[in-house]
Specification:
Elements lengths: L1 H11 L5 H25 L10 H9 L4 H39 L4 H18 L6 H11 L5 H38 L5 H56 L1
Helix pairs in contact: 2-4, 2-7, 4-7, 4-8, 7-8
Length: 248
């Protein structure tokens, strides 16, 4: 109970409380699923009164606690394994496919020139500075010195925490899906409309989490590819300028 007040205090102070809130929800849904499994296997149970110290001592000393505790551990481990496995499998092969497509794709100089012309036209309307091809090339020359292998490593490191959060959120949504399915079959007031609405929101949310993870996963590859292609374009562009100069 004290932890709830601490979390509420941190929230009022403007501090992030999402990790703590997520842990509380994970605990709640794990207990709900374990409770359902216990009743299916061992029948209905009743809570001991808080002042029944003898009953509480018997519950722990005689080992009665170990049955629900074991069920809780099994539920926690199973849902964790299934959610992470599903998350990894759904992302792994898709990420590999997208990564291969990025690495195999080759930009043509003519295509890049055409896109830069389109960008120049748009910049006349939406930006105070015209983004001409010359401006973009000069801008890239200024930032290219900061594009190093160490910079890419830093980017990958900075993406680890957001990716872990997305995976943890997927696990929470997975457990929530199981829990609300149990609530639907256990509670007569839990109607079809609420169940289908909640299930749809959860499935859409899980899909968004998968897409977000894939995007973060390919960012380093995408940036490396952009750097490689930009260097090739700059090389060809410089050679053409030198050839034109020599012909004159």
């Amino acid at each position: 109970m004290n932890e709830i007040f601490i979390i509420a205090g941190d929230y009022l102070k403007g501090k992030t409380v999402y990790p703590e809130f997520r842990r509380m929800l994970n605990l709640l849904f794990n207990i709900s699923i374990a409770s359902f499994v216990y009743e299916k296997c061992y029948g209905h149970y009743t809570w001991l009164n808080y002042n029944d110290y003898k009953g509480i001592l018997d519950f722990f000393i005689k080992g009665n606690f170990f049955i629900p505790f074991s069920i809780f551990l099994v539920v926690f481990g199973t849902t964790q394994f299934l959610s992470i496995s599903a998350f990894s499998l759904l992302n792994h092969f898709k990420t590999i496919k997208i990564t291969r497509e990025i690495l195999q794709y080759q930009f043509k100089k003519e295509t890049v020139d055409e896109r830069l012309k389109e960008l120049d036209k748009v910049s006349k309307i939406v930006t105070p500075i015209r983004l001409t091809k010359k401006t973009m090339i000069e801008l890239y020359k200024k930032v290219r010195t900061n594009i190093t292998p160490e910079a890419f490593e830093e980017i990958e490191k900075s993406l680890k925490e957001p990716k872990q959060n997305l995976e943890a959120n997927f696990t929470l949504a997975f457990r929530m899906t199981i829990a609300i399915s149990i609530y639907f079959f256990s509670l007569p007031q839990f109607g079809w409309l609420l169940y289908l609405t909640a299930l749809t929101v959860l499935l859409v949310g899980m899909y968004v989490l998968l897409i977000s993870y894939r995007f973060l996963d390919i960012i380093p590859t995408l940036m490396r590819k952009f750097h490689t292609q930009a260097e090739e374009y700059l090389k060809v562009h410089t050679e053409q300028i030198n050839d034109n100069t020599e012909n004159k």
